[in-house]
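ok so for the tutorial part 2 we go from a plain amino acid sequence to predicted structure tokens. step 1 is just haveing the sequence, like this:
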Amino acid sequence: DVQLQAYGGGLVQPGGCLRLSCAASGVTFNNYHMSWFRQAPGKEREFVAAITWNSGRTYYAPSLKGRFTISRDNAKNTLSLQMDNLRPWDTAVYYCNVQPPLRPYWGQGTQVTVSS
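step 2 — the prediction. this is what the tokens look like for a chain of 116 residues:
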């Protein structure tokens, strides 16, 4: 079974940083482009960032570019998201998926709460 497990979330103060990770299993990781999405309470899930299979290109939601950095380690089957200068509106559950995302691959996500 394919599992994409996001972890590393938590409570952080405004202006702080977090690094999320996503562990992939049951899939040939370096065959896929990968992505991060997030869903805030009462809102639709939205695109955060994506990265090509070989890290050759990265893509970001325009509002997040400059604060978030996506990366991957194909040797470790791991996707990462470095989040800097976090704001309260970044509060959401963060999910990883392949890109384009596939419904069966949505995991439980990891909660990020930005609050003082």
